[in-house]
Design goal:
The complex is a heterotrimer. Chain B is mainly alpha-helical. Chain B is 69% helix and 0% strand. Chain B has one domain: Orthogonal Bundle (MetI-like fold). Chain C is flat. The chains are: A alpha+beta, B mainly alpha, C mainly alpha. At the B-C interface, α1, α4, α5, α6 and α8 of B face α1, α4, α5, α6 and α7 of C.
């Protein structure tokens, strides 16, 4: 015992020493030097963090970029990459370490709002209009609202409005074969799946895999249900101004839906081992007859497999603009040169030569522009257009579609835009603090008890009861009440 | 002589340990580790809500105990066999082969497992169908996965683990074996009275070291083999996978730290207890 | 007189031989049983270990289309070199990564092995008062960890090890588990030898260099192998601390390839990014083969240290 207490006291001593030593870290309040807009007298190297891995040609692209940037802005850009497999771990680390970073890509799936709430980013409402005036002016009101957390603007969204699209990317060649002319509703899709099962047994009809099981999302989309937090099963009707937040377990037609899903599963519309299948490329490999995704996937799949004559069936009947913070650029609190960073961002978004470099590569070497203003990539292995986290500064005026995109792409886009409505909930961010424990527990419950249920692997009646039971135990009542409260408040403030 | 090691460990391990307090803090990026406000035990709540935390703790401990006994026992048996048997080339080649699984990453193993067990096109069902037996949906049988996981754990580690035992056996004085030979002892007797007692210290150290890790699951192994298959969670979820899933969206640094702290403190208490018991039996065998 | 002795000796020898021959016959029966069981067990287990590895290699030589439609098999259904061709189209990355991995593994193993063995020797000495306290000091670090955030901040901001090879070498250099295993190896060295050396006036360091090291061949080989394997297989430290792609070790390249596909598929339903350029299954397998290949060939060289009795000769001397 004596030995132990000696060791413990030694340990405490070490802790105290390190406490003092480490106190320095973390207090990374940015020192904002007053830099006049046109003051580029000091040469500076800006550090930008992006997600993914660089193209083989990226060094050359960056060199060309920096040549221009040095001449025009007396600044050079250094890009550091956080790989796809690492972002979960590394993204928060990099922000927490207080390393001076001037620009970073952010998004909803990178937990933009939560991190802004916890002080990861610098407020931009004062410096952006000054140092990136054109970009700031081009932001729509909604975009800025969505980038606002706790009263401060923490990101600059791209000026490219994306509309919510979710549905099925379906093989047109098979549709012709079965004599199905179009798929407009959820049940139409079911008919297609049925035809596949009956006529082409070797195909996986719906292409679902472990992390993509949105058969329920398609159904909800048709009913104008918007997922406030799909991983915890909370939805709201975005067309009803007085709608209540509802959990999947409590939806009125859930029992009927689950019965239908069990029927579909038994009929073989999807395999029994979807949840362990990690293959997300089945459509492109020619193994699946359809896949449930968004518009952009339809485009990229068509480019890859034109022979499949892919059609897109959008289940969101009245689309709405997606969250503008689906892709955005933010300035971390640790930035040393926020003003110069904004100036650089301004240049990228307003000077096509800069934009094209980072988005498409070096003209003539990596890509060419065709006569109808489409991008033709010259070597996909060396530089794939829009493949390197350039979505954070995507700009509507410089955007060019790729050669090989579906012929009716613009038509489809226009049609979506014309029937679009608004969804105020895209601007809503959940304040997790009061419910973060229950939230985590419910995420787990949904994963364990709801997902197998929606896929029809479990008895619908018993499974639903089990789900409800576990949700309750995880604190669903508290979360529902809190979400409703936040939604009511949000609606009140957004009249 | 031990000074360099002490300094290295102090530097790299002890100083950062101050980060443990994150488990009790509501971390904010702009305030750092020490500036962020205290959160008491808040960060632990999600783990114990709804009782899942206890179930995954139980799973973690049970899996570790079973895996420990099976893989170490098998490794010992294989080590003894390899050391005793004749046939130089057979020994060398089989040793190298048994070592191969260690190199195959769990991500690839996961893909192979799916390849074997998936209902429609898996190897298992293809074989069953050719024998006119009804195919099995393994993913509907949660209990089966306990055996599958234990099997794959041993498969991966036996070759690696056996090396320690082989090395320990190699250090045994051949004189004892020669003497036993003259006394006419047979193979089994030699193993029982010479080999096993001689490697007992090694066995105990390895067991102790593993007991000290009893609250930590091999995240990659469970995550890749089971994946997101909720039907199997009751029997296969361990602390590490549970925490990962709960926090993947919107989880914060404090909650992750809390889970790690929970694992650490339990490991600590368990190993202190076990080490004390071992010390009472024989001071030499204990870890410290 | 001597002849009598000799005759007596011969007689006892003869009896011994006869006796031992009889005993040998008995012994051979059990030996045969043992060998049968032994060969059987080992062969089965070896086959189980070999099959997935063959599947891995075969998969890397299979076309993507065949894998998607038929899964993995022992023999490629559709032979294809496309995965390797793609990987070797830009060999500089792989060659560079090899260099990095080899450099780190070799230097880390030598330093680590030396450090661990020396420290293990110290804490194995029964006359060292603080051996248990020191052991606990080291062991404690395996129980409690400051967590990723603290370690990361410390390494990057205070030690300035970002993009430094030291960031890949230092964390793995001193593994406490190996320390304690090495300690038990060293304990098996007879105390008498060390005593006699001390009586000859040798200091501890000299004893360590001249006696312990040569006598611990099996232990050194084992722990050395383990340390080398840890270095070779480590991608985690590279993920955390290395951002310069010229300094990526081989396993990190592989990990990147394997996990980015998985991560992409995880978020592609949430994000609007299309996974157009994700590596195919066979590409991943080919990368795995390339990343694993060499170290497997190293193992047979180390095997010779695991032969019985290699250390004993020195003891007798």
């Amino acid at each position: 015992m004596k030995k132990l207490s000696k060791v413990i006291s030694l340990y405490v001593a070490v802790m105290l020493v390190s406490l003092v030593a480490l106190t320095g870290c973390g207090s990374s309040k940015a020192k904002s030097s007053t830099v006049k807009v046109s003051d580029t007298s000091k040469s500076v190297e800006l550090s930008m963090y992006l997600i993914g891995s660089p193209a083989k040609d990226y060094d050359a692209v960056l060199a060309a970029f920096n040549k221009k940037a040095k001449t025009n802005l007396n600044a050079t850009l250094k890009v550091t990459w956080i790989g796809w497999g690492d972002f979960g771990t590394k993204y928060p680390l990099v922000l927490a370490s207080g390393e001076p970073i001037d620009l970073i890509y952010t998004s909803n799936w990178l937990n933009f709002a939560q991190q802004a709430q916890k002080g990861a980013f610098m407020p931009l409402e004062d410096i952006a209009p000054k140092y990136a005036p054109k970009s700031f002016a081009a932001e729509s009101k909604d975009a800025l609202k969505q980038a606002t957390v706790n009263g401060h603007i923490y990101a600059l969204p791209p000026s490219f409005t994306q509309y919510a699209t979710w549905g099925a990317v379906v093989r047109g060649d098979l549709m012709k074969k079965y004599g199905i002319s179009q798929i407009k509703t959820f049940d139409d899709y079911g008919k297609y799946l049925d035809a596949v099962v009956k006529n082409d047994k070797t195909f996986d009809p719906s292409g679902m895999y472990a992390t993509n099981t949105p058969i329920d999302t398609l159904y909800f989309d048709q009913q104008n249900l918007f997922g406030l937090s799909p991983t915890t099963g909370y939805y709201i009707d975005y067309k009803d101004p007085n709608a209540k937040v509802v959990n999947v377990a409590d939806m009125a037609d859930m029992p009927e839906f689950l019965n239908k899903m069990k029927g579909w599963s038994d009929k073989g519309y999807w395999p029994k081992s979807v949840l362990s299948n990690k293959d997300s490329n089945m459509l492109q490999e020619g193994k699946a007859a359809s896949v449930m995704r968004g518009l952009d996937d339809w485009v990229s799949s068509t480019i890859k497999n034109p022979e499949q004559d892919l059609q897109f069936a959008n289940m969101i009947t009245n689309s709405y603009p997606l969250s503008y913070v689906q892709d955005a650029m933010a300035i971390p609190a640790s930035a040393k040169n926020p003003e110069r960073a904004l100036m650089l961002l301004e240049k990228i978004r307003n000077d096509e030569s800069y934009y094209d470099l980072l988005t498409y590569g070096i003209k003539g070497k990596d890509f060419e522009i065709t006569s109808d203003n489409k991008i033709k990539p010259l070597d996909l292995d060396v530089f794939a257009p829009e493949g390197y986290c350039s979505w954070g500064f995507k700009d509507a005026k410089f955007y060019k579609p790729l050669v090989g995109s579906p012929a009716d792409l613009q038509q489809v886009r226009d049609q979506i835009k014309s029937t679009a409505t608004t969804n105020i909930y895209e601007s809503f961010t959940i304040n997790m603090d009061p419910i973060k424990n229950e939230y985590a527990a419910i995420q787990n419950v949904i994963q364990q008890y709801y997902v197998p249920l929606e896929l029809g692997y479990v008895d619908p009646v018993k499974g639903l009861a089990t789900l409800k039971q576990n949700l309750k135990a995880a604190g669903a009542d508290k979360v529902q009440a809190e979400l409703q409260k936040q939604i009511d408040e949000f609606r009140k403030n957004n009249k | 002589m031990a000074a360099p090691a002490i300094i290295l460990v102090l530097l790299l391990s002890y100083i950062p340990t101050a980060g443990i307090i994150l488990a009790f803090k509501n971390y904010r990026y702009d305030m750092g580790i020490f500036g962020s406000p205290w959160a008491g035990f808040n960060n632990f709540k999600y783990f114990f809500n709804s009782g899942t935390g206890l179930r995954v703790t139980q799973n973690t401990i049970l899996y570790n105990l079973i895996n420990l006994s099976t893989s170490q026992l098998l490794a010992m048996v294989i080590a003894i066999i390899i050391s005793e048997m004749k046939g130089k080339y057979f020994k060398k080649i089989s040793q190298s082969i048994m070592f191969l699984p260690y190199f195959i990453s769990w991500i690839i193993v996961g893909a192979f497992v799916y390849n074997i067990f998936n209902f429609e096109t898996g190897t298992l069902n293809t074989v069953l169908k050719s024998l006119h037996v009804t195919p099995i949906n393994m993913y509907n049988i949660p209990v089966a996965w306990i055996f599958i996981i234990v099997f794959f754990n041993s498969w991966k580690w036996v070759g690696y683990n056996s090396i320690i035992y082989i090395a320990a056996i190699a250090s045994i004085d051949t004189e004892s074996y020669e003497a036993a030979d003259i006394d006419g002892a047979n193979v089994f007797q030699k193993i029982k009275s010479i080999t096993i007692p001689a490697i007992t210290p090694t066995i105990i150290i390895i067991l102790l070291l593993n007991v000290g890790r009893i609250m930590r699951g091999d995240f990659q192994m469970f995550y890749q083999i089971v994946g997101n298959n909720g039907q199997l969670f009751n029997t296969t979820d361990v602390i590490d996978t549970f925490v990962f899933r709960s926090l993947v969206n919107g989880g914060d640094i404090g909650m992750t730290a809390a889970a790690t702290f929970y694992q650490s403190i339990l490991c600590f208490l368990i190993i202190m207890g076990v080490n004390k018991i071992v010390k009472m039996v024989d001071d030499d065998y204990s870890l410290f | 007189m001597s002849t009598n002795k000799n005759i007596a000796k011969l007689k006892t020898r003869k009896i011994e031989v006869t006796v031992s021959r009889v005993r040998k016959i008995k012994a051979t029966k059990t030996t045969i049983i043992f060998n049968i069981i032994g060969y059987f067990l080992v062969t089965i287990f070896a086959i189980l270990c070999l099959i997935p590895f063959i599947m891995l290699i075969s998969g890397s030589f299979t076309s993507e289309h065949a894998i998607a439609n038929y899964g993995y098999g022992i023999v490629p259904k559709e032979f294809s070199l496309s995965a390797y061709k793609l990987l070797l189209k830009y060999p500089q990355d792989i060659i560079r990564a090899y260099g990095v991995s080899i450099f780190i593994t070799v230097s880390g193993t030598i330093l680590g092995l030396f450090l661990i063995t020396m420290t293990a020797f110290v804490i194995s000495r029964r006359d060292f008062k603080y051996r248990n306290k020191l052991s606990f000091f080291f062991y404690f670090t395996t129980l409690f960890n400051g967590g990723l955030v603290a370690t990361y901040i410390f390494m990057i901001r205070y030690l300035h090890l970002k993009d430094s090879y030291l960031a890949l070498i230092l964390p793995l250099m001193f593994n406490v588990f190996y320390l304690l295993i090495m300690r038990s190896f060293i304990k098996s060295i007879p105390e008498s030898i060390i005593e006699s050396a001390k009586m000859d006036g040798a200091g501890y360091f000299k004893i360590f260099m001249k006696l312990i090291l040569p006598l611990s061949k099996a232990g050194l080989a084992t722990i050395g192998l383990f340390i080398a394997l840890e270095y070779w297989n480590d991608w985690y430290n590279a993920m955390l601390y290395i951002t310069d792609y010229k300094k990526f070790p081989l396993q990190y390249l592989l990990y990147n390839m394997l996990s980015s596909t998985e991560a992409m598929s995880r978020i592609s339903s949430v994000a609007n990014v299309s996974d157009a350029n994700m590596p195919s299954q066979s590409l991943k397998l080919a990368m795995a083969v390339i990343a694993t290949g060499p170290i497997i060939l190293v193992y047979p060289f180390v095997q010779k240290y695991f032969i019985k009795g290699i250390t004993v000769g020195a003891v007798k001397g």
